[in-house]
Every structure is written in structure tokens, then in C-alpha cells.
Design goal:
With 578 residues, the chain is an alpha+beta fold. Helix content is 31%, strand content 19%. The chain is built from 19 helices and 19 strands. The strands form four sheets. An eleven-stranded mixed β-sheet has the order 1-3-2-4-6-5-10-11-9-7-8, sandwiched between helices. Helix 8 links the parallel strand 7 and strand 8. The relative contact order is 0.10.
Length: 578
């Protein structure tokens, strides 16, 4: 059986163990064995797939990051020449062009397999509100798969594609991930274009992705990202946090009692095993924001998304979908403004919560229902599922659901990492750390790595110049053995000078700074110091404080101390070098 994770496929292609045609043929065989899960609305036929496979012959595997990687597309996202239904047969249209994210993925060499089932018009967290059948959970099909991106999540878990696109307005890209034991990334709003996506709430919608690993999610994020003519696209200012010492916001007491006992215990067990600082937070302002999604003006926004269709063909909608969206027609402009005012007040409160934490760590969902339970109580069950997810897009946060254990009934349990907008890359790195996956030492987008060797080290007088603009410690390490260290005459700063073959390994710390803070930081650097590059002990080069040659004049060499801290502790009280 071919493993569909991206690294395995790349390796197999490079070694010619198999070809993309072999992968597609095996996937089609797997699909036939999983028909009862109601995963697909439209599958590409052999002729279409043959054309796409042929196109790969004109693309270099080395220059196309997703060459031969199969993926699925939620059926509210356009694929040129393939019907888009949004889970409603009478709404069906066939687009001439693909959604922006789909075009980017195909241009990178990815192969679309088909369009997946969903809660109609992306309205639901259950995966049952579809005329194409309720989607069965990948582990136990008697249970729900989560929604609205149900088919996409199950397709990934059952090995029918390497990754799948979903959308996320209220949790649709996270809850199905939690219920099926996979990774679900909901990026910062506007980082990935929503052009070519049937809207649920235009101001909140995000395209999301499901993968088997955090590494694969990071790869897909790199291909999907980028602004285009979508009016909701925006240039994201990325920031980060120290993933080795994150401050985690967690819940307990009444906020955790929303969970059933199995989910609550799984959550408690997961967080108890984490070696990080934990801060118990109050969910009240987050819960209040979540309630606005289905009680405030955003219901009207759902109505506005399909107003012409719902007015002309109300009988075409799933009864539950119609019941929810039709309420939007009753709301007024006054309701809309009052709702937005309420949200801004709540956001000012939740922003302060994130001043004390880096990441909010919550159960992805408080429970999981059987399909039968959802059919009996469709509104109440769905409402309960969004307790920990509905507020995220309203408050402009990014989020990532990861597997976190197994419930007593054998179903997967997931937790969601939630952070401020623009912290997507740091969130991916933290998730990789929690999952035991490799983490790149390269700076994340929007960040700048800087090695410091003196007064900017942790605990030293100028360290706040790094911390205040949002900097964090990446690693404590040493230079190669080609450096000399000098104490400048003012006694406050050292000078690091490269002298190949005649030096010593010097203690340094590598810090990450937001790109936007770099200009202000550089202005604080006085001569004879400047910014250049140094070689670390493992052979990597990183930007660092360096000194002009004139810095060694009238300066005391302190190389033999091996670092500024040691010198300050042992040598600066009057010891001199012979």
C-alpha cells in the first residue's frame, strides 16, 4: 500500500518506486471500498485524470513542490470544469476557472481527485445536512464526521488523498479534524484567498486544509498563501513566540464542564503531560463572542450570501439549513451595527487575555455525537459542538487542531491551538513540537533571527530591547571556534571579531525579532558595533552583532572566558588578561 504523505510520495517518485499514475489508480480502488461513508459528491473521471497526469510530464518534480500529490476539494470551492454544488443540487454551476488556492496547488503539481461532501452551504458542524448523505466518521461510521468539511476530513483519514481543502467559518476546518484524528489548519483570515469559494459569511470565511501531519500542513500553507484580487485578501504581518517556552491558556471548572466526561478527561490528561507554563483563563468573553455567530448580524450575512437563490428556491435547501439561514432576513441594519459594536467590546477583552498567554489550548469539540443523535436533535447538538470553535474567526485568530488521544469509545480526541492573527507559523512549529515532528531552524516568514553575545543576552541590561517588540529566544548556542571576544572600554558591551584559526567558541543566543521591528532596533546600535553574520558551532550562519576592526583598539581581550556572562561574573571586577 502506498503511503500518501508528501515526503513519502516525493521519495517514491524520486526512487521510481511508483509513478503518479500508480498512485491515482490505487486511490480509485480505495475509494470504491469506502463508498458507504458518503465522502464524495463528484469524482474526476479517468479521462480528466489522464490529462492531469499527462500535464505532469511537462513539469519538473524538483521545481514543483506538490508534483504528483493527490488532493480533494470541498464542494463549495471551485475547480474549473467540475460542478460546484455547495451541497445543494439545484444550486449547481460549472465554473470556468478554479478558486485561487486550487489554481496555486495545481500549478505546484498537485492532482485533484474530486469534490467532497459537506453540510449544505457550509452551514453546520456535523456533516449530516446534505442531500448526498450523512458523512460517516472514518473510525466509526455510526458517528458523525464533523462539519461542514466532513468529506474532506474523512478522505484524508482513510488515505484517499494526501491532503484536502475545506473551509472554516465557525469550526468547519477544525472539528472534522478532531473527530477523525488528523491535522486541521485554519489560517489567519485573508492569508489565503477565498476567491472562487461559495461564501457562508464573506467577512469571516477561510479556506482550510486537512493533512495527516503538521509537516504536510506547513507545506500546503506555503503553496496556498498569497494575495490576489480577492477583496478579502490582506498582507499578513507575521509574528511569533518562543515555542520552547510557550505560555498556554487552558480551561477548567465550569468552562470544561461543557465537555462530556470522556472528552474532559482526555483534555485534562493531555495538558497535564505538557512541560509548559499553563494559565487558566476565563472563557466567558470568548463564549459571548461565539454566541454572536448565530444570534447576531452574521446570520444576515449568511442570508446575503445566497439571498437570490433562497428567495427563488427555498424548497431546494435542506430543512435545517433553511431554518438557520432564513432567520437572517429578519435582521435590520441596526442589529448589524449593534452586533459589531458588541464584538469590538469583546475583542478588547480577549486581546488582553492574549497579553498573558501565547496560545489558547482547548478541546477541539466538547463531545462527539452519533449520526442518530444528531438526526434526532439537529439544532441542539450542532450548537453544542461549536463551544470552543465559533469565536475564532470573529475575533480574528488563527487555529490548528491536532490529534490528542483516544476517547473511551475508541474515537479520536483532538485539541486546538489558537493564537493571535499572524502567528500561524509559530503555531505550526508548536504543533510539530507537540506531535514529535521536525521543526525547521530557519526564521519563520515575518521574522528575523539575530545572534547576540553581550548586553542583549537573557538577563542582561539590554535584553528588553529584544523582548519589548515581540522578540523571543530561539536557542542558546555557541559560535564556531573562529572568534575572539573583546570588552569595549565603556565596560558595557563586547565586540565579537572573526579570526579564523586563532579564536575560540563564544557563547551566543539566537533571538527572533519581527521584521517590522528591525529598523527601530538597528537604530539603537552604536559604533563600533553593527549587524553582520557569524558562523555557529554546527556550521550554520546567522545574522549577528559584529564589530569593526577598530573595536579591538584599547579593548581588553576576553576570549578565554568563552562568553560575556562568564567575563562579567569572573573578570570584570578587575581581572585582566596577561
Amino acid at each position: 500500500m502506498i503511503d500518501l504523505d508528501i515526503v513519502s510520495l516525493r521519495t517514491g517518485y524520486r526512487k521510481e518506486t511508483f509513478k503518479p499514475k500508480d498512485v491515482v489508480e490505487e486511490i480509485r480502488e480505495r475509494i470504491e471500498l469506502t463508498r458507504s461513508h458518503n465522502i464524495w459528491i463528484t469524482l474526476l473521471d479517468e479521462a480528466d485524470l489522464a490529462v492531469r497526469l499527462d500535464n505532469l510530464k511537462h513539469m519538473s518534480p524538483d521545481q514543483h513542490a506538490l508534483w504528483g500529490i493527490p488532493f480533494a476539494i470541498k464542494d463549495n470551492i471551485d475547480l474549473a470544469g467540475c460542478p460546484t454544488t455547495a451541497g445543494c443540487p439545484d444550486f449547481t454551476y460549472t465554473p470556468d476557472s478554479s478558486a485561487s488556492v486550487v489554481s496555486r496547488l495545481i500549478a505546484a503539481g498537485a492532482i485533484p481527485i474530486g469534490k467532497t461532501n459537506l453540510d449544505q452551504f457550509a452551514t453546520g458542524l456535523v456533516g449530516t445536512r446534505s442531500p448526498y448523505g450523512a458523512v460517516g466518521n472514518a473510525v466509526n461510521p455510526q458517528y458523525i464526521a464533523g462539519g461542514s468539511s466532513a468529506g474532506s476530513a474523512v478522505a484524508v483519514r482513510l488515505g484517499l488523498c494526501s491532503f484536502a481543502l475545506g473551509t472554516d467559518t465557525a469550526g468547519s476546518g477544525r472539528i472534522p479534524a478532531g473527530f477523525n484524528g488528523i491535522v486541521g489548519l485554519k489560517p489567519t483570515r485573508g492569508w489565503w484567498s477565498t476567491r472562487g469559494v461559495v461564501p457562508a459569511c464573506k467577512s469571516l470565511d477561510c479556506v482550510s486544509v486537512f493533512t495527516r501531519s503538521v509537516s504536510d500542513a506547513r507545506i500546503i500553507a506555503g503553496q496556498c498563501a498569497g494575495m490576489d484580487d480577492d477583496p478579502w485578501s490582506r498582507d499578513i504581518e507575521f509574528t511569533g513566540f518562543n515555542i520552547n517556552m510557550p505560555r498556554l491558556g487552558v480551561i477548567g471548572g465550569p468552562d470544561l464542564e461543557v465537555c462530556d466526561s470522556a472528552s474532559g478527561n482526555a483534555y485534562t490528561q493531555f495538558i497535564d503531560n505538557l512541560p509548559f507554563e499553563r494559565v487558566t483563563i476565563d472563557m466567558e468573553p470568548f463564549t459571548a463572542a461565539a454566541q454572536l455567530l448565530y444570534e447576531g448580524p452574521w446570520v444576515a450575512e449568511r442570508y446575503a450570501a445566497i439571498d437570490t437563490f433562497i428567495q427563488s428556491s427555498p424548497q431546494s435547501l435542506h430543512p435545517i439549513t433553511l431554518e438557520i439561514i432564513d432567520k437572517g432576513a429578519e435582521l435590520t441594519a441596526v442589529d448589524a451595527f449593534n452586533g459589531s459594536y458588541r464584538l469590538e467590546k469583546l475583542k478588547s477583552v480577549t486581546d488582553k487575555v492574549f497579553d498573558a498567554i501565547d496560545v489558547l489550548l482547548l478541546p477541539t469539540a466538547p463531545t462527539i455525537f452519533s449520526i442518530k443523535e444528531v438526526m434526532q436533535e439537529p439544532i441542539q447538538t450542532n450548537s453544542r459542538l461549536g463551544a470552543y470553535s465559533n469565536f475564532v474567526n470573529l475575533l480574528d485568530l488563527c487555529a490548528l487542531s491536532i490529534p490528542a488521544g483516544t476517547l473511551t469509545n475508541g474515537l479520536p480526541f483532538g485539541v486546538t491551538l489558537i493564537a493571535k492573527a499572524g502567528r500561524d507559523h509559530a503555531l505550526l512549529d508548536l504543533a510539530a513540537l507537540l506531535r514529535g515532528e521536525a521543526i525547521s531552524s530557519e526564521p519563520r516568514p515575518g521574522e528575523f533571527h539575530l545572534a547576540v553575545c553581550g548586553a542583549h543576552l537573557s538577563g542582561q541590561p539590554l535584553n528588553q530591547d529584544l523582548v519589548t517588540p515581540g522578540g523571543y529566544l530561539v536557542e542558546a548556542t555557541r559560535t564556531s571556534s573562529d572568534y575572539r571576544l573583546y570588552a569595549l572600554p565603556d565596560g558595557k558591551r563586547p565586540a565579537l571579531v572573526r579570526d579564523p584559526g586563532c579564536g575560540c567558541s563564544i557563547e551566543v543566543e539566537v533571538w527572533s525579532l519581527p521584521d517590522h521591528s528591525l529598523a527601530d532596533f538597528v537604530r539603537t546600535i552604536a559604533p563600533p558595533l553593527g549587524i553582520g553574520s557569524v558562523e555557529l558551532m554546527d556550521g550554520r550562519w546567522v545574522n549577528s552583532f559584529i564589530a569593526e576592526p577598530v573595536a579591538t583598539e584599547n579593548a581588553q581581550e576576553i576570549t578565554h572566558y568563552g562568553g560575556w556572562r562568564k567575563y562579567k561574573a569572573d573578570g570584570s571586577a578587575g581581572l585582566t588578561e596577561d
